[in-house]
Each structure stands twice: as C-alpha cells, then as structure tokens.
Amino acid sequence: MKNISALSMAALLAGSLMSYPTFAASQTADETYQLLEQQKKNTYYKVTYRSEAEGAKIAISYHAELMETNKEQGYHVIDLTTEDIEKLESLGFTVDIATDFMNQQVDLLTQMQSVAVQTTLTTNSESNAAALIAGIPGYSCYETVEETFAAAQTIANTYTNLADWIDVGNSWEKNQGLGGFDIKVLKLTNKANTGTKPILFVNSAIHAREYTTAPLNLAFANWLVEGYGNNADATWILDHHEVHLMLQTNPDGRKKAETGLSWRKNANQNYCGSTSNSRGADLNRNFSFSWNITNGQGSSGNQCDATYRGPSPASEPEVQAIEAYVRSIFPDRRGPNKNDAAPTDTTGMHIDVHSYSELVLWPWGDTNQVAPNGIAMQTLGRKFAFFNNYRPQQSIGLYPTDGTSDAVSYGELGVPAYTFELGTSFFQGCSTFESTIKPDNLKALIYAAKVVGAPYITPGGPDVTNLALSDGASSGGVTPGTPVTLTATTSDTRFNNSNGTEPTQNIVEAEYYIDVAPWQSGSTAIALSAADGSFNSKTEGVTGVINTTGLSLGQHIVYVRAKDADGVWGAVTAEFLVIDNDPTPEPVEYCAAAGANASEEWISQITVGSFTNASGSATYSDFTSKTVPVSTGANAITLTPGFSGSSYNEHWTIWIDLNADGDFSDSGEEVYNSGTASSSTRTGTLTVPAGTAEGDTRMRVAMRYNAAPSACGTFNYGEVEDYTVQISDGGGTVPSTFENTNSYAIPDNDATGISSPIAVNRTGASGTVSVAVNISHTYKGDLIVDVIHPDGTVYNLHNRTGGSANDIIGTFSFDAGSKDSSGTWNLRVRDRARADVGTINQWSLTFQ
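The chain above was modelled as a monomer; its predicted structure follows.
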C-alpha cells in the first residue's frame, strides 16, 4: 500500500466525476463546466490508522470507497458518508478532511475544465466523454477485453493439445441484446494425459476498474503454455493438473473502466437508472451462499451504492456463470453447517484476483470466526505472501462482507479460496506492474498450481529451490551412462510472518524421481543426501548422483521434493534431464573484466586483418556479436586509443581462449602484449599458435593506463572489449554460404522486431547475395523482412504482402555491390499487426 501516483489519482477523480448521477455523454461543454464546478464541493476524508493490521482492515471494509493510500504516513483517503465517519470515530480512528488531496483534485479539475470549454462531447459516446474528463494516457501493458479474448483464442488455436477456450455464460448486456460479451474460461492441461486431475480455478477483473488483474491472469496462461516442453515445472503442472482461467469475469463493466471510469460493478441498467454511471450490481456481493447473510452490514441494498448486492442471491448472469462453472469442476466436500470442515485430502483451489491493497485473504469475511479449514488456509496464505510480499490475513475487515466469490467455492464446496489484492492502485502504472506486481504474483500463482493436489497439506512442507543438474544435463544433455550430480536447496521457512508466525520444522528427508511423479503408480523414490552430512536444520542443501545408464534418448523430468519433521512432504520442483548421443556443449562463461574509469581514455578502434571496429567511451564493451576472422600464425593488428583531452600512455594486451574452456590462462592464450605503454596508435601482430583447433571462441582486448592489464577483474583506467573470433588454419578456403539455424520467436505487433545474426568471415566485395529464408507465421501480411549489411545498409525482402497466407519460405537476392562482406549480417523480422505470431526457423547467406 504505497502512495498512489498522481496519474492514478486523476483516474479515480475522473471516475468520481463520471459517477455523478446526472452526467450524460451528450452534455455540452457549458453543462460539463457546471458539473465540474459542483464536483469541487465534494469532501473526502483522511482516516489515520495506528498499525498495518488496522490499515488492512480499513482497506478491506472501505475497498469500494478508497481514493488514496499512504502506507508510510499511515492513512487512507476515503469517500465517506456521515454514518461511515461516525462508525470509524466510534472505533477510535482519527477522521479529518483530506485537504491536500482535495486541493490536488481542484487543480486537476481546473485543467479538465479548460479542455471541456473547448470540446463538445459526442452524443451517445461514453468513451469520448471519459476521454475528455479523465485524460488518462494509454496503459500499453494492459489488454482490453477484446485483446484479452483474442489472446486467449490464439493460445487455444496455437496450443491445441494444451488449451480450450470455453463459453460458460453471458454478460448482462449480451443477455439483453445490447452487445456485451460471453463469459469464457481458458482451460489449460495436457489433453494427452487423461484421467481426473486436480484443478486450479483463477478468475480476475470481477471489479471492472482493477486494471492489473486480467493481465496477470493472462500472463500466467502464457507462462504455462510457452513453458510447456521448455520449463520442467510448467510441463509437469500441465501434464498432471488443470488450470482454468476466467480472464474477464465482468467484461461489460471492464469496457466502462477502460475509458478511465472508476467503474466497479456490472452494467445492469435495471439498478440506479439505465444511463447512470452508478448503475449495476457489485458482483462480489451477489454470490448465493452468503448473500446478505449479515443483514445489510456486509453489502448495500442501495442500488446506486458501490457495494449494491443485487435484489436476490446470484441475480446477475455473470455470477450465475461463475457459480455454475465452479460447481461443475469441484465436487462438494464440505457439510452444510458453518463449522463443517472439508477433509484434508480435498483437491482444487479457487483464487479471485483483485486490486488494490497488497493483501492475501481467505475465508471467512462475514465473521471473525476462524473457518473450519482456516489454519490450513492460513498456512497456504502465508506461503503465497512469501512470494508477493503482501500481508496475509483472514478476509474480515472492520465490518463483515457477504456474498463474495469464496462463498460457492469454499463455503458451499469446501475448496480453499483466496483473494489476491494486487498492488497499490486501481489504475496501476505499467512500470510497477511489469517490475513487481506481475513477476511476484506469477510466482504465487505457479506455487498454487503446484500444490492444488493437496492444498490443505502440501504448503506446510518444505520448498525445493536452486535445483540444478551438472554438466549441462538440463540443456545440452549428456551421453547415456554419464553420472549427473543433482544439487538443490530445501527449506521449511518460506512463509510471510508479518501477521503471525508460521510453525516450521527441520528437514528430515529429500528424494528425487525420474519421469514418474511421486503421486503416480509405479514411481520410484531415490534418496538424496544432506550436503553437510546430516539433516538437522530448517534449511538444507541436498545432493545426489543420477545414474543415467539405461535411460532412453530424449528429455526426461526429474522431480525433487523434501519432507519436514512433521512428516509433511512439500511441493515438487522439477528439472529436465536430457540424454543425447551427441550433446550440445554447455555455454562457456567468462570472468568479468573492466576499467573502473573510461572518462579520459578508452579503446577507440581495433583492426585485426580485414576486420575493423570503432567504438566510444566505455569501461567494458561486449562485441561478441561481431566475429573477427583470424588464422593460425601472424595476423596484422592496429590498436587505437581514444582520449577526451590529454593523451596518456596505454598498455595493450589481447587474449584468445584457444581451447574454448572459459578462461584465458592456458599456455599461448596471451596472443599480443604491447610490452610498453604509449599514447600512440599501436601496430603489430597477433599470433595464433600452429595446431590451434579451428572454430569460434572468445577474444579479449584490454587497454590500461600505464600498466599491463589482467584478463580478469577491474583496473583503474581504461577499457576491456570482448569479441568472437573464428580461427582457421591459414590455408583453408572461406565458405561462400553462411547460415543461422537457431530459432527466434517473432514478437507480436512490435516495431523493433527480432534479428537473427550471421557472422561472415569472407572478405572482399559482396556482389549478388542470395538469401534463403524459412519463417513460420500465421499471417504473412503482418511481416516486414529485411537483411541488414554489417555497415547498416538495409535490403528489404518482404513488406506486408501475401495477406492471410502462412509462412515465408523461399530464396531472395539483391546486389550489395562492392561492399565488403566481412562482419555480422542480420535478418530482421517485424510483425506490425496484432494477434498472429511466428518464428524465424533459419536463414542463410550465399555469396556468388
């Protein structure tokens, strides 16, 4: 609950204006001016709280009326009624007029008035009205309802073995023939693995203005399907579990909120006037199990109120859709009485994603009484909060709430239910969403998908992190029979203890399985050892050696889990094990090196044979995308220093990792040393020993002020540059065809696109160049394809022709004339329209 930005506050104020009961999109600028003047008289209140717990309870109880939160100074700004003020003051809270907030509001409204005077609102155009009043810039990181549905349909079309896009109901407007939307669920699982699977159900955007919620849910879907076959955890989750995502639970309302309106409810015109922007029902007060159970305390009977519960339980079609769907996927495991607990072996989970307040919540919300499964839900809630760093607590605020989404899933069926309150604003800025909210909450959702088979048990056990297999066994692979060392960290302490302390125990056991998961029939556990020799602490390193003899060629999954002293096995973490007769070598990692200061001197230019590269001031430059052709024996070099003012004496050294083992310390790998320091350009020879293996490796060039540089570490003044070198035997022929067979995903609707490089060590005029291209894409008319010469010249091969046809596979040619062919060429592909995606599979250059 950090401070809401001014931009977000502007959006909330705009929503407050648009909620004024008599505002209509057809009003003139003068009428708008009068309404804005009247709106200046609104009063907002600053409610000061004394602890984080109190602040969280206020946020829960007054979630619909929140305008601003300042966690550092301990207050909320809330739109309160006289009755609300009396209630808060009776509980000992300080309630003051929010003068600073209101002054900022007046400043914003004054700016809005100047726009209103110059603009006439288009008749019957609510979006134009909102644009005038709100002036909210676009949030490029958040998909619209239509874009969300299109993205889900693309997932279903692309990953036919993993995804279905299911229609489960209608919005209110669709039912009335007023446009509207289907209520749809994206179901994700490996369809080839049949049988009953535990289900994670996640719905989002039930409150329309909560911008971050649906994009997070969609990002979770993309992580799963894109990770299948590439990420071991995503793979086993979809093999053994089902994930059901209702991305847009309130699509009619969401369309209102996309215009900048602070719209919370659905769009039902039967409540509060058919044209009022306060119309609709609060869907998260309309669920049937606990509808109005608190007799008016936990929801409102006023149709214009933000928490209007609707006229009857599940009166709204959106709620009917979600209730019917939840009942269709989860069996009833809980008795009819309030204190009936669901059995501990219950499978499944429901998460309702909201914003804002940085909270993880679980039932009950209509009473302070602990739910019959409340202790187990608290354990999992504290685990979720470990990942997103939110406050975990039961969902009761200062006052109860009723008719909420957990009513059917937990209240009726016994499935553990949670609410995530994301971030610090309804209209959250993209930078915060991308840097914090999305990555942190993705981790929480991934964990949920892992433990959904036993959510009342597994979260109490240890987690497995830092799982790694030696010798590149997870990526490049190993030959059959190669012993592979497994290492990991196990911990029973990964809980958020900001609201009570979760009991933890020592690790007592860890084990791994290959291909057959622990819960499957026929699985075989293989014990792991404590790295320090004994299991005697709450966090333990574990290790073991995998015998790969007899394993078939291909990709295997290694499952790892650990048990604590209470006998609870924690969540599984997995890694791939690749068995290959011809494994790909593990990428080589090199030590870091750099000058500490390059403001006065740096490497200006190097020339090796026909290769030249000029550059500006830097302490370190990674030029490994550039390939320097060298041969065994002597290679002519020219080294030029750069200075910002006075010239200084510089010492130069060049190393080549001749045996490609990741260091520059072997005999003969220092291939040039200037010997003395000088401010002049140096010329000389770089010598590659005879018998050096041909191929690509790393070259490091270092220039240091007045002393010899080292291959690793940081020195006082100067620069280090790294290059790729291609070593030949000095007598061989240079090939005329060069290719890149690596695949590159083409980003959708991205002006920058993606480039696939080819390093060419052929020198001399390029002449006619033939380009063979293999690009998969479902709409080739979206694509622009260029070849870029090392000097930056662009040769266009394809420019958005071909309409809806698939793929670009063929050979193109162009005349590069006398341009030298040496250096790095790039195939650049840009997708300039939404929805369809593709891949650069491979391409090649042939010089005549």
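The first strand starts at residue 45 and ends at 48.
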